[in-house]
UniProtKB/TrEMBL annotation:
Domain Polyphosphate kinase-2-related: 39-265
Organism field: Aphanocapsa feldmannii 277cV
Keywords: Kinase, Transferase
Record-annotated membrane-spanning stretches: none
Protein name stated in the entry: Polyphosphate kinase 2 family protein
Single Gene Ontology BP annotation: polyphosphate metabolic process
GO molecular function: polyphosphate kinase activity
């Protein structure tokens, strides 16, 4: 398998995706951590160049969504992949439990407020997909003050439909949505939790709530799989990234982002005759 072929990670849009058939330990076969670091640095530099053109072009925006289990590496992936881009052109949003004000609005409201403008990159560290994950696994719908007639057998199906419509709306307005599910094994999660407990510098990352969520591993895996099946579309693709080796997963993410930006066919604006004349006038003034 050629690890550079992004089609390997892209979730099928025909509803056939099976999470248990994905290998979270895949790391490019012969690729090692040292060479991956070199490729990553090259990729980050290329991403920086494309971001400049994205801003100058001004016709497209990019929304990047990250979803995963605890300890899968969302924060570190965002940190490493976006390390070289201009921070003025990127906004990272980490969504927590909704506030009282947010809860009074429709459930997509607070996410729509943080969608990037054209020319910018927005990153959602967790997102509206929590509404079909944690809300589903823990049956939190009963706390959302919805009219009883709206909470029926087709409730979750309607949420998937709403998500697809929302993402299609963004695509129709020049905002490309690219989604990454960072896939780790249950054993790898256990090792990372132990590392947080055993290394003092990582103690702050550990929470008892993480262990509580781990008890729901199987239910989350089912929710993730259904989420990926129902919301993988051409307009807003999902990529299932193997993350047992963080260094490899980061490389896959940066490669896919580069491909997605290139597919926009970005270009610096073409200057008209009057603008070129003004540039020439400015040049003469400064040189004279």
């Amino acid at each position: 398998m050629d690890w550079t072929d992004s089609r390997y990670y892209r979730v099928a849009t025909d509803g056939s995706f099976r999470l248990d058939r994905q290998d979270p330990s895949f790391n490019g076969e012969l690729l090692d951590k040292g060479s991956a670091q070199v490729f990553l640095q090259q990729g980050v530099k290329h991403l920086q160049e494309l971001q400049d053109v994205l801003y100058a072009d001004g016709r497209h925006g990019l929304l990047v969504v990250f979803q995963a289990t605890d300890a899968a590496g969302k924060d570190s992936t965002i940190k490493h992949v976006m390390s070289g881009v201009n921070p003025q052109g990127v906004e990272v949003t980490s969504f927590k439990h909704p506030s009282t004000k947010e809860s009074r609005h429709h459930w997509l409201w607070r996410y729509g407020m943080r969608v990037p403008a054209r020319g910018f990159i927005g990153i959602f560290n967790r997102s509206y997909y929590e509404e079909v994950l944690v809300v589903k696994v823990h049956d939190l719908v009963r706390y959302q003050n919805l009219p009883p007639n709206l909470v029926g057998k087709d409730f979750w199906e309607r949420r998937y439909v709403d998500i697809n419509a929302f993402e299609r709306h963004l695509a129709n307005n020049g905002i490309r949505v690219v989604k990454f599910f960072l896939n780790i094994s249950k054993e790898e999660q256990r090792k990372r939790f132990l590392k947080r407990l055993n290394e003092r510098s990582k103690n702050w990352k550990f929470s008892e709530a993480d262990l509580g969520e781990r008890e729901h591993w199987d239910n989350y895996q089912k929710a993730f799989e259904l989420m990926l099946r129902k919301t993988a579309t051409t307009a807003a693709p999902w990529y299932c990234v193997p993350m047992n080796s963080k260094w490899f997963g980061r490389l896959v993410v940066v490669k896919i982002l580069i491909e997605e930006l290139k597919a926009m066919k970005l270009a610096y604006p073409t200057l008209g005759t009057a603008q070129l004349a003004a540039l020439e006038k400015g040049r003469h003034a400064l040189e004279g």
